[in-house]
Amino acid sequence: MQLCLARRPLVLALVLSFGVSATLFAQAPRERLDARAVASLVQSFYDQTTTMDAAFEQTQYTKVYDRTERARGRVVFKKPGKMRWDYAAPNGQVFVSDGRRLLIYQPPDEGETEGQLIDRAMSEDQLPLAFSFLTGTGRLDRDFRLRLVDAARQGFEGGYVLELRPRRATPHYDRVLFFVRIVGEGDRRAGVIQRVLILDANGNRNRFDFSDQRFNRDVPEDRFTYTAPARTRRVQP
């Protein structure tokens, strides 16, 4: 159930030509795949990509406060290890990683005059770990135990929901769900991720829905550097 190496450029071209639009995912009925086959189609497609740029919508539920927060913005990943999340107003946060360190800018709250810039190792944050596969620093079959969960119960009819449990325990999350659409036919198939849901052991949920996905566009290196506004205090936990 793996993509044929000779066909891979054609699969990538198919996805690129449509910009991963909603119409691309109208599919004819086909045989159902198992978890390993879905993971293989996902991995083989993203192995071909060097960058991914997309709009995102985030829905984050914090159980202890029984509170749901929503935000949106744009994200870009670049191999190896680089990523940047720019949140739209009123959130305004920025997450930037150069592959070694992660900078998190938090604008001042209402009534405050100073924002803060948090500087931490990549291994100390949920986002780089959960998305390591998209930055080329992780592999699905090596780093996770895989199984499929019921897509219909997850509200994802016609697609696959791939559950990933880390082989090495991490305090940052318990499991990750990839919501995958299969693009193409026969040997020219690829698995494209439309949604990621991160769940931790405390019942918190962090969901990202991606749209307007663009692959292998030129992304300059300076996108992964960041200079905070004046009157920003720097914090190193």
Topology:
Blueprint: H1 8-18, H2 35-47, E1 51-62, E2 67-78, E3 82-87, E4 94-98, E5 101-106, E6 115-121, H3 126-130, H4 140-143, E7 144-149, E8 160-166, E9 175-185, E10 188-199, E11 205-215, E12 232-235
Parallel strand pairs: 6-12
Antiparallel strand pairs: 1-2, 1-11, 2-3, 3-4, 4-5, 5-6, 7-8, 8-9, 9-10, 10-11
Task: Summarize the amount of helix as a percent range.
Answer: 10-25%
What general form does the structure show?
globular
The level 1 CATH classification is Mainly Beta
| CATH architectural grouping | Clam
Strand content: 35-45%
Task: From the 3D structure, determine the CATH topology.
Answer: outer membrane lipoprotein receptor (LolB), chain A
Reported for the largest beta sheet, the result is: 12 strands, mixed
CATH superfamily: Lipoprotein localisation LolA/LolB/LppX
The rounded Rg comes to 18 Å
Lateral strand order in the biggest sheet: 7-8-9-10-11-1-2-3-4-5-6-12
- Uncertain runs: 1-10, 17-29
Number of domains: 1
Structural class: mainly beta
